[in-house]
Write a structure and sequence with these properties.
This protein has one helix at 78-83; strands spanning 7-14, 19-27, 38-46, 57-60, 65-68. It is mainly β. The chain has a single domain (7-73), classed as Immunoglobulin-like (Sandwich). The strands form two sheets. A three-stranded antiparallel β-sheet has the order 1-2-3, with no helix packed on it.
Length: 92
């Protein structure tokens, strides 16, 4: 590969929506070009409600970035969940 190649990764957290936004930019300019050309990729991930976005932890390696999110702590407890009656959904 010619020239230098770099990646820039930005992580944006939208707590009220439980959403994680990844913005990645990569240098795609040719060696003979003076100006930098960037290729941008944007991915939006909406986490299920049983995950807590405020517990996000990232790790960076030479070859990868890992993103971990923990489950929410159920404040009601397991006993309350078993005692709640089940209701049938209405069908159309």
């Amino acid at each position: 590969m010619f020239g230098t190649c770099f990646w820039r990764v930005e992580i944006q957290i939208l707590r009220n929506l439980n959403v994680l936004v990844l913005n990645a930019s990569r240098d795609v300019s040719r060696p003979d070009e003076i100006a930098k050309r960037l290729k941008r990729v944007r991915k939006v991930y909406r986490l299920p409600q049983h995950y807590d976005i405020s517990t996000l932890v990232t790790s960076s390696y030479d070859w990868a970035i890992t993103i971990e999110v923990s489950r929410r702590v159920d404040k009601r407890g397991a006993g309350n969940r078993a005692r709640r009656p089940l209701h049938r959904c209405e069908t159309v």
